[in-house]
């Protein structure tokens, strides 16, 4: 891969990440609290997943986005409780959820099994993502997020109807 268009596009992207964003994403700008940033990333991921579900497609992206929204929501809860979550593997966040009392070991095991057995399959296309799978994963992500928001009583959630 040595084409001039690739070289130019890569240089532009490298430059873009060296600059201060000219049009930052609303709701994520000026956030200095790392826990709130994770919560709001989860809000945006859920919004994007809902947008794609409403258009009847992109089920692989909805499933992937839902798993990441779950992780970001749990990460917010754990960080709000004063624990560090930096550098963890994807599935370690579920154990952190147990340690902080967010959910039981059984729920953590079920979430981890869901991730281990299905996330990679959908993402890498060894399995076929479908509407029902995408919808149910979105529902799990939304339920985890809503419960985290309710338990923490945060006012930092960007999801529709919470501001």
3D architecture notes:
The radius of gyration is 17 Å and the shape is globular. 64% of the residues lie in helices and 0% in strands. The model has no long low-confidence stretch (mean pLDDT 88). By secondary structure, the chain is mainly α. α3 packs parallel to α6 (131-152). The protein has helices spanning 4-16, 34-54, 59-80, 92-99, 105-123, 131-152.
Task: For the record, give the distance between the C-alpha atoms at the N and C termini, rounded to a whole number.
Answer: 47 Å
* Tertiary shape: globular
Main sheet summary: none
Outline the low-pLDDT stretches: none
What structural category do the secondary elements indicate?
Answer: mainly alpha
The number of distinct helices, counting runs of at least 4 residues, comes to 6
Q: What is the H-and-E element order? A: HHHHHH
Number of beta-strand segments? 0
Summarize the SSE layout with pairings:
Blueprint: H1 4-16, H2 34-54, H3 59-80, H4 92-99, H5 105-123, H6 131-152
Helix pairs in contact: 2-3, 2-6, 3-4, 3-5, 3-6, 4-5
Summarize this, please?
The protein is mostly helical and 163 residues long. The protein is 64% helix and 0% strand. It has helices at 4-16, 34-54, 59-80, 92-99, 105-123, 131-152.
